[in-house]
TrEMBL record, chain B:
Localization (cell): Cell membrane
Residue ranges annotated for the ABC transmembrane type-1 domain, each copy included: 72-273
Annotated protein name in UniProt: Molybdenum transport system permease
Stored Pfam families: BPD_transp_1
Positions of region (Disordered): 1-22
Biological source species: [Kitasatospora] papulosa
């Protein structure tokens, strides 16, 4: 369950400062409601140290590669992994020393962990029962929750008879039935197949929008994060590398990992007007005029490939590259290019066939300056 | 230069259609079949021999003997009681060994299995030294409460539980280790104390393992001889269980001993087969 | 049950030691079976004996027979005596079941009869010692037991041997003879277990053999009782038909019956026949 730390992709000289200013507005308000935590967990060589704040009603997504410490952070919030340091306050109450069963926290586990010997109804009634409700009252509450999540017809079913999407909703109902002040979701959609996922994602979005307390979800899927969360917190190697509104993070990634996630080519360099000299490569011409250290990003779809050096093109960014690899995504082909500049390019299968692309082939890549996006480091 | 690469990579869909498990294909390999059949014969032939040599003619007379019924009833009562005792203290012990980290856990686990390797007669002597009238605990029991355990039916239950409980503990511990501890964590996040989680989640989850362990312990208790006769002695109606009756009959009347053994066998097979159908096919 | 592991390839061993001579000898010996086993074949020169003698003997004979075995091996270099001590019934069952043994020394004529009835004995069994019952009490005899009748007193925990085994049958005989009714807390499976219960102070008294009390040293105290005379146990010994070393078997039996052997046995608490 716990992720083992491992180094994420590639070099990370584009690491962002620990916290971005745009996250500060989301802290708990003056009355001390919401989540205010600094989670420090040390296990062997791995150290997790993340600060998390969230207001009631806010949905925060912890996004990061495997082994980044997301799940550890979640377990620490639930009390399943003890904190080595830091603090954890929820609605003004310190939770650090509270055992998991006493915390007003609900968890939806990655593989749901529905109790296989209990029906959907009894799974949901389990929490209220533990909180002192009578059997009848607990079942009544459970039936109510199942109804709200559209599962009234499946109340008597054992978990193994439920589909993935149904099981996910039962797990959500079970977590919500204890009326938690903090809802934790660990990869809530990872166990679903692609089609179910789409459907469940939008349902989950609705339910989370209705939820009045803090919700923290952990995912490695940027789409899940962007659809479900009000704010992204990107964790790499136990530390926060970027946080902010999903659109901000997507537009202005600060690490390779994030850039890859949102499907952008990302470079760092020194800007001088419309020209950005990359740290160890060629120059790029950008739409924005800036000066000083900057990031430059553009999507793979902005790249055009040519077999021969194009003459008279309006593109000012032209590089001689070699095909390092080709990958098919639906009717799209993504080309991994090396050479003057390492970049990813998207093209249609038809275009790829016309260009007779294969690994090792030499190509010219162009990107229009208007399709690049430069922003200060 | 900063590297860059492809966009969002979604993992392959999990939980696709379940693959149908094929069982017992047509060709059973000979290197497995042959030893398996030898193994079966090795276990069955002695029992068959017992049946062949059984004094069928004197059977009715034996089976109507009050002493035989007395011994049989005592055997069943004591084995069941010993199994109950093992369940009450053995399942928590198994939980402790499987779920709680404490120094010397490996040693404790080895100690738990010790009664398995200890010759039962030695086990009986050890019980006498611990719980006997002059034993380290038994002496106080006698002095303070006037309770003496040797030569009593309770003594039989204790001796049988001592020998049988390790089977239960090992079986349950194995099941517990195989069971996902995260179900207990899930229960905790729902507000269940560790005990509630154990009672309402873990216990039902490992029920098949407990049942298997209980059956094993019961069978072992039913056949128990050495520890019982050493600790509880041999007195008809009070401490003389079937194995003791069989052993003593063997001294003078081997035919009667065979007949008694068959009665014990028949009863245990009936009970075990009944339980198996009820509990153990659910897997 | 078997205490001493028997060498499996006895035939081979014998062959290695000069099979022809030995085979001739044993054939010769078995032809004059009719002569009493007591007849001094030990008079024949000791260097003619070799090989292994396997003796199945009642558990109560363990100490004295082990000592005699050593003497025998000393007197006849090249021989080896191996013992299997156990309950007489089990030993008899083993012999009739084909266990390879040369000599059988039983604790009761009844168990010996199992062997002779099965035709496994060579010649007539001879009584070589007798054993008498005694009451074993806790050291110092705290319950001041002085007679069989004292054992029937209330609150006293007495163990007897089971009626199926010789010491139990003998005790029952003594009780019947004196018209006493005794309810023990347990009928033990053999005399050693009965004695152990007193040694561990779990029982206050046990009716066992004099020799067992003797062997237990100061862990128990023996109390003689007159009724024991009514239940004296004879110990018969016999050479077995299936022997592979008749000469040595005969010589061992002779040693047991000799003055020297009797001295060892009476030293262990046995009575002369």
């Amino acid at each position: 369950m716990t992720e083992t730390p491992d180094t994420a992709h590639g070099t990370r000289n584009a690491r962002a400062p620990h916290r971005t200013p745009d996250a500060r507005g989301h802290g708990p308000d003056g009355s001390g409601t919401g989540l205010d935590a600094r989670l420090v967990v040390e296990r062997g060589a791995f150290r997790l140290d993340v600060a998390l704040t969230a207001a009631p009603g806010e949905v925060v997504a912890l996004l990061g590669p495997n082994g980044a410490g997301k799940t550890t952070a979640l377990r620490a919030l639930a009390g399943l992994t003890p904190l080595s340091g830091g603090h954890l306050r929820l609605d003004g109450t310190a939770l650090e020393r509270m055992p998991p069963e006493s915390r007003p926290v609900g968890v939806v586990f990655q593989d749901y962990l529905l109790f296989p010997h209990l029906t959907a109804l009894d799974n949901v009634a389990f929490g209220p029962r533990c909180h002192g409700a009578t059997k009848a009252s607990a079942r009544e509450q459970a039936a109510d929750w199942l109804g709200r999540l559209g599962l009234a017809d499946h109340a008597g079913a054992k978990p193994r008879r439920l589909s993935g999407g149904q099981a996910q909703r039962v797990a959500l109902a079970r977590a919500l039935a204890t009326r938690p002040r903090l809802l934790l979701l660990d990869e809530p959609l990872a166990a679903l197949d692609a089609r179910t996922r789409l459907e469940v994602r939008s349902q989950l979005r609705r339910h989370l929008a209705d939820f009045e307390a803090v919700a923290v979800l952990v995912t490695h899927d940027p789409l899940d994060a962007m659809v479900l969360a009000d704010r992204l917190v990107v964790v790499e190697d136990g530390r926060i590398v970027q946080e902010g509104a999903p659109s901000d993070v997507a537009r202005r990634p600060r690490t390779d990992y994030i850039a890859q996630l949102v499907g952008l080519n990302l470079y760092r360099g020194e800007a001088d007007g419309h020209t950005v000299r990359l740290d160890d490569g060629p120059s790029l011409t950008t739409a924005e005029a800036l000066s000083g250290p900057v990031f430059v990003a553009f999507p793979p779809s902005a790249v055009t490939l040519h077999r021969d050096r194009p003459a008279g093109t309006s593109a000012r960014n032209l590089w001689h590259c070699e095909i390092a690899g080709l990958e098919t995504h639906g009717d799209q082909i993504r080309a991994d290019l090396s050479g003057e500049l390492r970049l990813a390019a998207d093209l249609t299968t038809v275009a790829a066939a016309e260009l007779d692309l294969r690994p090792g082939a030499e190509v010219w890549a162009t990107v229009k300056a208007t399709q690049t996006h430069a922003y200060p480091v | 230069m900063t590297e860059l690469d492809v966009g969002a990579a979604t993992g392959p869909p999990k939980g696709g259609p379940r693959r149908v498990r094929t069982r017992g294909g047509p060709g059973v390999p000979l290197p497995l079949l042959l030893p398996a059949l030898i193994g079966l014969a090795f276990l069955i032939v002695p029992l068959v021999a017992l049946l062949v040599r059984a004094p069928w003619r004197s059977m009715p007379e034996l089976l109507t003997s009050a002493e035989v019924w007395q011994a049989l009833r005592l055997s069943l009562v004591c084995a069941t009681a010993a199994t109950a005792v093992s369940l009450v203290i053995g399942v928590p012990l198994a939980w402790l060994l499987a779920r709680v980290e404490f120094p010397g856990r490996g040693l404790v686990r080895a100690l738990v299995t010790l009664p398995l390797v200890l010759p039962p007669v030695v086990g009986g002597v050890a019980l006498l030294m611990a719980l006997g009238r002059n034993g380290i605990i038994g002496k106080s029991l006698d002095d303070w409460f006037g309770i003496t355990l040797p030569f009593t039916t309770t003594g039989v239950v204790i001796a049988e539980a001592f020998v049988a409980m390790p089977f239960l503990v090992i079986s349950v511990e194995g099941t517990l280790r195989a069971a996902d501890p995260r179900f207990e964590e899930a229960a905790a996040t729902l507000g269940a104390s560790r005990f509630t989680a154990f009672r309402r989640v873990t216990l039902p989850l490992i029920a098949p393992g407990i049942a298997a362990g209980a059956v094993l312990a019961w069978a072992r208790a039913l056949g128990e001889f050495g520890a019982t006769i050493t600790f509880a002695g041999n007195f008809p109606g009070r401490t003389q269980t079937m194995p003791l009756a069989v052993y003593l009959a063997l001294q003078s009347d081997p035919e009667a001993a065979i007949a008694l053994s068959l009665v014990l066998l028949a009863v245990s097979i009936a009970v075990l087969a009944g339980l198996r159908d009820r509990w153990m096919t659910a897997g | 049950m078997t205490r001493t592991a028997r060498p499996t390839g006895r035939a081979l061993q014998v062959a290695g030691a000069g099979a022809a001579v030995l085979l001739a000898l044993s054939g010769c010996s078995s032809s004059d079976d009719s002569s009493s086993a007591a007849s001094g074949s030990s008079a024949s020169s000791s260097d003619e004996l070799s090989g292994t003698v396997t003796v199945f003997a009642a558990a109560s004979l363990k100490e004295s027979f082990t000592a005699l075995g050593e003497e025998f091996e000393k007197a006849h270099p090249g021989t080896k005596v191996t013992f299997s001590f156990g309950g007489s019934d089990s030993l008899a069952a083993g012999i009739t079941g084909g266990a390879p043994a040369d000599v059988f020394a039983s604790a009761s004529p009844k168990t010996m009869k199992i062997v002779t009835d099965a035709g496994d004995a060579s010649g007539t069994p001879a009584t070589f010692v007798r054993n008498q019952l005694e009451i074993a009490t806790l050291p110092g005899n705290p319950d001041t037991i002085s007679s069989l009748k004292d054992l029937t007193g209330p609150g006293l925990k007495v163990v007897l041997c089971d009626k199926e085994v010789p010491c139990g049958a003998a005790a029952q005989k003594a009780l019947d003879a004196s018209g006493l009714k005794l309810t023990p807390v347990s009928y033990e499976q053999d005399v050693k277990s009965a004695l152990t219960k007193v040694e561990l102070k779990e029982a206050d008294a046990a009716v066992v053999y004099k020799t067992d009390v003797h062997a237990a040293g100061d862990k128990v105290e023996g109390v003689e009782f007159p009724e024991s005379a009514d239940a004296v146990n004879d110990y018969p010994i016999v050479q077995l038909k299936n022997t592979g070393n008749a000469a040595a078997a005969k010589a061992f039996i002779a040693l047991v019956q000799s003055a020297q052997g009797q001295k060892v046995l009476t030293g262990a608490g046995f009575l002369k026949p």
